[in-house]
TrEMBL record:
It holds the Pfam family OEP. This is Efflux transporter outer membrane subunit. Residues 1-17 form the signal peptide. Keywords: Lipoprotein, Membrane, Palmitate, Signal, Transmembrane, Transmembrane beta strand. It is a lipid-anchor. The keyword Lipoprotein applies. Coiled coil: none annotated. Belongs to the outer membrane factor (OMF) (TC 1.B.17) family.
Length: 488
């Protein structure tokens, strides 16, 4: 380590040669529009509109006030959002700590003591008696940051804040989507329960008809047993559906910051899954990457990693600070203001870890490797965003086709069941035909309800992969510690 006396003569040259070492960050081409982004896989489907951007509050497309209220509540009170907010505030505080290092640093020390000093250490050939010592000093220093170590640190810190903000926005996307998904699960379970109850009514009616025919000596005992079996099999589906609805209600309550038992009672009766039946605005691929918080988070993490290379590179060069101190040291309290007690100093402090720079070079190599890893993660995040969106679009389009086909099949099954039931009630049809028609109708009703529930979930999944929901979000409820005022 070399101090000021060794390199003071070279200080003016160092001041003139000051620069910011390390590579300057350039955003990836896909984020600046310099590289083309593949179009989304809408494939001209009538269910999507690529020309319209996804709205910020996409859940308003459902036109469901209950869902709007639940998402708005979750975006304020969700615990995951509170954690993400606290992380962002911590990162901002760390940035302020770094920025302060670029300003003049001051210090004040007051050190009264009672001690026995060494005479040899003071150059006195005799013992120094025990005495009181009053020592006070004020200091001022400023790091010239000739090679940009602090500037790169601030650059990395600001990128870290951007990544933390993106993480909060990503949490908002997930919370809005999870809330809508839980609500859809509640309503879908309600729909399937209603369908099952209608199927139970159909099966019970078939059993009643068969029992009357048996009592009249027209039908056999096996016909009654088969009809009763169908009824019991249909009834067996209710407990599982009710449990699924309760689980979704509990999930919905915790997502909105409540205890599981505090779920909204009005939602428990929902039997119509939220569905967007008009074409869904999805935008294009470039808008997708600009909107998705995970892509922005990966880009900001890459910027921080590149800036850290400069921080490490500055370790190859000397650190120069200008500073001074002023103080007083006396053995009697009345002497602290006398001129003989005063002492001061001013000058540069140059610190340079030479000739062994192996540690600095190792840090540079590590920072370069970390930056390459951050670039790979960014590329992977972009590819994942495109894959997830394309997959969600294709899956939803095909599931909507499936729902339409199952709807037509249900209508046909209902027509067949009514025809066979009339024939059987009139004593013309066969019982096995009636039983088969009843089973077909029940299966068709259940399949259609499941398909509708899946369409509802797939729509929510699409909205989540499109990355919307963080724009214009309400402020998250802060975390208040006992006796500590929470800053906003």
């Amino acid at each position: 380590m070399l101090r000021a006396s060794a390199l003071a003569a070279g200080l003016p040259l160092a001041l003139l040669a000051g620069c910011t070492v390390g590579p300057d960050y350039r955003a990836p081409a896909v984020m600046t529009g310099k590289a083309p982004v593949p179009p989304l896989a809408t494939q001209g489907a009538a269910a999507f509109e690529a020309a319209r951007p996804l709205p910020a509050h996409w859940w308003h497309l459902y036109d469901d006030p209950r869902l709007d209220a639940l998402v708005d509540k979750a975006l304020v009170h969700n615990t995951d959002l509170r954690v993400a907010l606290a992380t962002l505030e911590q990162t901002r505080a760390q940035l302020r700590e770094i920025e302060v290092q670029r300003t003049p640093q001051t210090g004040l020390t007051v050190d009264p003591s009672y001690a026995k000093l060494s005479g040899d250490a003071r150059g006195v050939g005799q013992s120094i008696p025990t005495t009181a010592i009053y020592d006070a000093a004020a200091s001022l220093s400023y790091n010239l940051d000739l090679f940009g170590q602090l500037r790169r640190s601030v650059e990395a810190g600001r990128a870290d804040v951007g990544a933390a903000q993106a993480a909060l926005d990503l949490a908002r996307v997930n919370v809005a989507g999870q809330t809508a998904s839980a609500y859809a699960s509640v309503c879908s379970a309600g729909l399937q329960i209603a369908v099952t109850q209608r199927s139970i009514a159909v099966a019970r009616h078939a059993l009643d008809v068969t029992q009357r025919r048996f009592d009249a000596g027209i039908a056999g005992a096996n016909d009654v047993v088969r009809a009763r079996t169908l009824l019991r099999q249909t009834e067996a589906g209710l407990p599982g559906l009710d449990a699924a609805r309760q689980a979704a209600l509990f999930t919905l309550a915790t997502l909105t910051g409540d205890t599981p038992e505090a779920f909204p009672a009005a939602v428990a009766t929902c039997a119509t899954p939220p569905l967007v039946r008009q074409p869904i605005p999805v935008g294009d691929g470039a808008a997708l990457l600009a909107r998705r918080p995970d892509v922005r988070q990966a880009e900001r993490s890459l910027a921080a990693a590149v800036a850290t290379i400069g921080v490490s590179t500055a370790g190859l060069y000397p650190s120069v600070s200008l500073g001074g101190s002023f103080g007083t040291t006396a053995t009697a309290l009345g002497h602290v203001a006398q001129s003989r007690a005063f002492h001061w100093s001013v000058g540069p402090l140059i610190t340079w870890h030479v000739p062994n720079l192996s540690a600095a070079r190792a840090q540079i190599a590590g920072s370069n490797a970390a930056a390459r890893g951050a670039l790979a993660r960014f590329d992977g995040t972009v590819l994942t965003a495109l894959r997830e969106s394309d997959t969600a679009l294709v899956r939803l389009a095909r599931q909507m086709d499936n729902e339409r086909a199952l709807g037509a099949a249900r209508d046909d099954a209902a027509t067949a069941q009514r025809n066979v039931e009339r024939l059987y009630a009139g004593g013309v049809g066969e019982f096995l035909d009636t039983l088969d028609a009843e089973r077909t109708l029940i299966q068709s009703e259940n399949s259609l309800a499941q398909a509708t529930a899946q369409v509802s979930q797939d729509q929510v999944s699409l909205f989540m992969t499109l990355g919307g929901g963080w724009e214009e979000a309400p402020a998250v409820e802060g975390i208040a510690l006992d006796g500590v005022e929470q800053g906003k």
